[in-house]
Specification:
Helices cover 54% and strands 3% of the residues. The protein is mostly helical and 235 residues long. It has a two-stranded antiparallel ribbon with strand order 1-2.
């Protein structure tokens, strides 16, 4: 696959070609092609190279924000569970069956809940949290109205953790929000927000809003910020 396989999909100025080649090498030609095709369908026209580059930068900003707040969520779940049930034998409702064998080995078979959960997969930690008694679940997630969105939470974390381009992720799980079934990145982020402690709600929304704003170029080969409004995430 060569550079021209991407260049034929976008409008690009001659003085942008060398900058584009740098990022085609770093991020991959196919990923650029995927983003260009995504924008062409979204905008119903041929995108410019600046729009493709800005979209990829915007997507990375969103992923970094989500990574941070998913980390806060992970820490909060682990803290609540281990603070109340400090030893594995104290875990209620057979929650310990969701602790993975790798976590047991890595924690050197510690009987402390915090140690076990610190080494476990995010999905296993969510399973433990979702199988706590109702009073614990409400205390931990006071804004969560249904347990049906567990898979959506884990799916979002996996996409972010594997640095997947998020804006065109069609395989994110369906979520139940305000009594309606919804699918897509915006609903997945809204699902994350309701799992977070309330004090984080405004902070994550502000950071996602600010991600759309033009930022000063940080690198030599970054081109002019030209982000289409059609792809903006509005919560």
């Amino acid at each position: 696959m060569d550079y021209d396989s991407f260049f034929k999909l976008v409008k690009i100025e001659p003085d942008e070609i060398e900058s584009a080649k740098v990022y085609l090498d770093r991020r991959g030609i196919q990923e650029h092609i995927n983003v260009a095709n995504f924008l062409k369908k979204k905008l119903n026209r041929t995108p410019t190279y600046c729009e493709v580059a800005s979209t990829m930068r915007y997507d990375k900003r969103i992923r970094r924000i989500l990574y941070k707040f998913l980390g806060f969520l992970e820490e909060n779940m682990r803290a609540y569970i281990s603070n109340k049930y400090s030893l594995e034998k104290d875990l209620p409702n057979g929650c310990n069956k969701f602790i993975g064998e790798d976590a047991r080995k890595l924690s050197k078979n510690s009987n402390k809940t915090f140690d076990l959960l610190s080494y476990d997969l995010f999905s296993n930690l969510v399973d433990v949290a979702y199988h706590l008694p109702d009073e614990d679940f409400v205390a931990l997630f006071p804004n969560v109205e249904t347990k049906a969105n567990k898979k959506a939470l884990v799916a979002l974390r996996n996409k972010v953790g594997h640095n997947k381009f998020l804006l065109n992720q069609k395989d994110l799980c369906t979520t139940m929000l305000e009594g309606k079934m919804k699918k897509g990145l915006t609903s997945s982020i809204s699902n994350l927000i309701i799992h977070l402690p309330s004090e984080f709600k405004n902070e994550i929304k502000k950071e996602i809003d600010d991600a759309f704003l033009k930022h000063q170029n940080n690198y030599k080969y970054q081109v002019f910020w030209s982000l289409p409004r059609e792809i903006r995430i509005i919560l």
